[in-house]
Design goal:
Low-confidence stretches: none
Distance between the termini: 27 Å
Number of strands: 12
Oligomer: single chain
Strand content: 15-25%
Shape: elongated
Structural class: alpha/beta
Radius of gyration: 22 Å
Number of helices: 9
C-alpha cells in the first residue's frame, strides 16, 4: 500500500513538488491545520504539521507523525500506539536565541524604563548600564536553543556555561558543559541566567525562590523555554525587594498572562507573549520544511529518524 502523506506545513511555491519528488509513489494531500478533515486524518499514514491533538485520536492508519514544533507534550496520549513521533526541534533555535539576546541587551541597557519615559514624554537618564563582556552566562538547557544563544553571547565576549541532564561531551557555544545537578553551585557565579528548558516533571518549578536567592544581586534572568520552569510570584517578590538587575520573560504560566499578575509592573522586567519562536522568521519556516523532507527520505529508506520522541 502506498503512503498517504497529509502535509499541513505552511508550504511556499515549489515546496509541494519537492515532497512529491522525494516520495513519487505516495499520495500527497495538502491542507491547513484549521481545515483538515477527520477523513484525511483517518486515511493518513504520514502527517506533517500541527493538527489539533484531539484530532489525532482518529488517525487509525498513522505510522509516523512529525510535528512542526519542538515541543511535543501536547500530543501525549493522543497518538495511536506504535506510531513513530518526531519533532522539529532545532528549527526555530536561531529565532529564539536572537530574541533572548535582544531581550538581554534591552534589560542591560534599561530600555524598558526608557520606553516608559518615552511614552510619558519624560527625558530622564536612568543611570548605570550593564554589559555581558567578560561576564558569565549560565544556560540551563544546552540544547539547540541554548547552544545558539551561547554562541551569540560568546561573540560579545561572555564566558558561557551550559547545563544538561546528561553530559556526553562538548556542546558548541559553551566554554563548559556541566550536569543539571550543578545548578545551585553555579548560580552564585553567573551574571546572566538563561532558562531554555522544556516542561517536564523534573523542570517544573526548577527556578524557585531559593534558587533566585542564590543568584547575584545584579544578575539578569532570561526565560524562553516553558513558563512552568520559573516561580513567577517568587521572581516578582525578589525583584521588588531589590534582587536582580532585571529579567526578560518570553514564556509564562498560564498563557496569556492574567492582567492581575504582579509581573506586569516590576521595574526592568521585560515581558513578551511567547513570540521568540514560531514561524515569524522565514529561516524557521524553511528549516522546518527541510527537516520534514530529510526525515521523509530516511523514513522511505528505512533509516533512523531525526528528533525521534521516545
Amino acid at each position: 500500500m502506498s503512503e498517504y502523506i497529509l502535509n499541513l506545513l505552511p508550504l511556499h511555491e515549489g515546496e509541494a513538488e519537492e515532497f512529491q519528488a522525494i516520495a513519487p509513489d505516495a499520495v500527497h494531500v495538502y491542507a491547513r491545520s484549521g481545515t483538515v478533515t477527520p477523513e484525511q486524518i483517518a486515511a493518513a499514514t504520514v502527517v506533517f504539521g500541527w493538527p489539533r491533538p484531539e484530532m489525532m485520536r482518529g488517525a487509525a492508519s498513522l505510522k509516523w507523525f512529525q510535528t512542526m514544533w519542538a515541543g511535543t507534550e501536547e500530543y501525549s496520549g493522543f497518538l495511536p500506539q506504535g506510531a513513530l513521533f518526531t519533532s522539529s526541534s532545532g528549527s526555530n533555535s536561531r529565532s529564539v536565541a536572537e530574541h533572548m539576546l535582544t531581550s538581554l541587551l534591552a534589560v542591560c541597557r534599561r530600555l524598558p524604563a526608557y520606553l516608559d519615559s518615552q511614552r510619558s514624554h519624560v527625558w530622564k537618564d536612568e543611570g548605570p548600564m550593564k554589559t555581558i563582556l567578560g561576564g558569565t552566562v549560565l544556560v540551563a538547557g544546552a540544547g539547540h536553543v541554548g547552544s545558539d544563544f551561547a554562541k551569540l553571547c560568546q561573540g560579545l565576549g561572555a564566558k558561557t556555561i551550559g547545563l544538561k541532564r546528561t553530559v556526553s561531551g562538548p556542546v558548541e557555544g559553551f566554554d563548559q558543559v556541566q550536569a543539571m545537578d550543578q545548578l545551585d553551585a553555579l548560580l552564585p557565579q553567573a551574571d546572566v541566567v538563561a532558562l531554555a528548558l522544556p516542561h517536564s516533571p523534573q523542570t517544573a518549578g526548577l527556578m524557585d525562590a531559593r534558587r533566585i536567592a542564590l543568584m547575584k544581586d545584579d544578575a539578569v534572568l532570561i526565560s524562553a523555554g516553558r513558563g512552568s520552569v520559573l516561580d513567577q510570584e517568587a521572581l516578582a517578590a525578589a525583584m521588588r525587594g531589590g534582587k536582580l538587575w532585571g529579567a526578560a520573560l518570553d514564556v509564562a504560566t498560564p498563557e496569556p498572562l492574567p492582567s492581575e499578575s504582579p509581573l506586569w509592573d516590576v521595574p526592568n522586567l521585560l515581558l513578551t507573549p511567547h513570540v521568540a519562536g514560531g514561524m515569524r522568521l522565514e529561516i524557521t519556516r524553511r528549516r522546518c520544511v527541510e527537516m520534514a523532507q530529510e526525515n521523509l527520505r530516511r523514513y522511505l529508506a528505512g533509516e533512523a529518524l531525526v528528533n525521534l520522541v521516545k
